[in-house]
Amino acid sequence: MAQRQYKMLSQQDFTGGLNFRADQFQLKPNESSDLLNVDVDPRGGVRQRDGIDAHNSTAVANDITGIWSHHETDGTNQIMVSHGNKIAYSTSGSFTDVIGGGGQPAVNSVTTRSRGVTFNDNCYIQNGTDQPLKWNGTTASRLTQTFNNSTTPTNGNMPIAKHVAVWNEHVWVADTYESSTNHRSRVRWSHLDYGEDWNSDHYVDIDVGEHGDYITALVPAGDRLIIFKQNSVHAIYGFDTSSFQAINLTHQLGARADSTPVASPAGVFFWYADEGVYLLDEANQFNWLFDRLSPAIDDGSISFTNPPSLMWGKAKLYVSVDWGTSRRVFVFDPTWGSWVVYDVDVTALYGYRPPGGSQSLLGAKGGRIIKFEQNRNSDRYDGVAETHIDSYYRTAWFAAKTPTVKKRWGRPRTVVLADSSITLPIQIFTDYDYANTHRTFNASIAGRSSTSVWGTATWQNAEGSSGDAVWASVDAASATDVQRHPTLGTAMAVSMKVSGPTTNNTWELNAMTLTYMMRRVR
User: Fold this and answer.
1) Which of 49, 208, 450, 499 could form a disulfide with 446 if both were Cys (CB 3.0 to 4.6 A apart)?
2) Collapsing DSSP states into helix, strand and coil, what is residue 298?
3) Could you give the CA distance from residue 125 to residue 70 in angstroms, rounded to a whole number?
4) Contact, 330 vs 321, CB < 8 A?
5) Which of 351, 299, 308 is nearest to 327 (CA)?
6) What is the pLDDT of residue 3?
């Protein structure tokens, strides 16, 4: 009688990311129903995310509600924020208020969020109530609201509005306040190349009075200026006042108030109502991207006490949402169409890129700006205290295409990578039951800094002491280790959860192989 042989299942692709929707039998092998603080590696593995750090160790006086930037042709680059009833700027670290001090304009009359854009070396800042603020990098001033219907520039004026954008050599404002009246569906544009001169007739009202709706965002996107309302999306095309025209793109979708839709090479991402993230592509087609994560909205894990915030940076979309009593950041990689999630507790997000410079991914936490992807193995929300990054990845169920047949599972192997000697706890679940752990064991990896790995260990001298010779190897910051683990026992299906170390060290899971032998069906 021939002896039965073990068969193998290999998993090297983890690019499916997080999927809350699929049940046990629908989850693809490269997807996970539970992961935290890991990134999908382009090579196919998963790795612990980089840590965050504070931009300003000294917090501003109030919680930061909005972030934007100011850039000038002389090389001046500043991060701008609104906090409480003030505006502040930073060139490298600490923030300095630009209103409310000696010789400065008075503070705002409200604490609502401010927004700003730069045009012709000046930053124009709006909050929908106060006179617009003009900031030239060193001095702030208020702008008045006198229209200029001639072609001769007079400067010094801008309508009061809630939203402001720069597109097609004009400054644009929306949701305006004119002559003591709110025009919540109105969009205005400035004179060509003059941000402080406005013709009283240069405006368009978008679907006035329909369902009590109002404009929630302006987003420049190539040859279009996208206008979001809560339940509709519109676009303005053209190149000057005589050719500007507004068209409706949909009355079925819109952008949630203060959710900061964001442009990208793929199109414009936005958050609609309680449905999650959509993408408006270059062909004006709408694509829902939140299908895999929508159960987190349905069960109340994602809530809306505070609005979601979106940011595009380093070829990924970052989405900060309320999660329980704090915030979480979901990250979408359009290359794979996959999501992961971080437990980074930040509110407003902003992708800061100085002209010709590298991009910084920013978020607001209280009175501080937090920077993502800081090549750290721990988090620092205040620039001092270290917070450990709890990370893990749980696989889909492995059932060898026979989900109800018992199998004898042999010794699994994992390919893991670390930059220091670490221990990774591993849990095994069986038969579609995540409530009970079937087995636990550890994967102990000797990192590059260990004296027992290639490239670090030395030849031994005759008397037994370490010699001076070092094993030759290609310089690398991390060591890869193939781990063989204990047998998994008998089960219809198995799932493996790999957790990060309790120390502040990074780790990566590149591949795993499971062996099994099919039990006879009776």
Assistant:
1) 450
2) helix
3) 10
4) yes
5) 308
6) 61
The Cα-based distances of 392 to 28, 369, 380, 500, 501 in angstroms read: 18, 26, 20, 6, 9
Q: Give the three-state DSSP class for 210.
A: helix
Q: Tokens 């190349």 identify what position?
A: 193
So what's the pLDDT on residue 505? 94
How far apart are alpha carbons 98 and 476 in whole angstroms?
Answer: 47
d(Cα 397, Cα 29) in Å, to the nearest integer?
A: 7
> Which ranges of the chain have pLDDT less than 50?
1, 450, 459, 461-475
**DSSP labels, 437-449:** --EEEEEEE--TT
CA–CA gap between residue 345 and residue 352 (Å, rounded) = 19
Class of domain 7-48+391-518: mainly beta
C-alpha radius of gyration, the chain, whole number: 28
The first and second tokens of residue 21, run together, are: 């929707």
Please tell me the distance from the alpha carbon of residue 158 to that of residue 145, in angstroms, as a whole number: 5
Cα angle 489, 493, 498; round to 5:
80
Q: Which two tokens stand for residue 4?
A: 């039965």
Using DSSP bridges, classify how beta strands 170-178 and 160-167 pair: parallel, antiparallel or unpaired: antiparallel
Q: Does the reported pTM lie above 0.90?
A: yes
Main-chain phi, psi angles of 297, to 5 degrees: -80, -45
Domain range annotation of the chain = 7-48+391-518, 53-224+305-371
CB 200 within 8 A of CB 254: no
How many angstroms separate the CA atoms of 30 and 340, rounded? Answer: 13
Provide the pLDDT for residue 475. 43
Question: What is residue 471's predicted lDDT score, i.e. its pLDDT?
Answer: 41
Residue with tokens 């709408």: 286
Question: What pLDDT is stored for residue 1 in this prediction?
Answer: 45
Question: Which tokens hold the place of 504?
Answer: 């502040």
CA separation, residue 20 to residues 26, 124, 310, 339, 430 (Å): 11, 42, 20, 10, 19
pLDDT at 114: 98
Task: Report the pLDDT value the prediction gives residue 467, as an integer from 0 to 100.
Answer: 46
Q: In this structure, what DSSP letter does residue 420 have?
A: S
Other Cβ atoms within 10 Å of 516 Cβ, number: 23
Distance CA 129, CA 495 (A): 55
| SS3 state of residue 453 | coil
Quote the pLDDT of residue 468: 42
Residue owning tokens 């781990």: 483
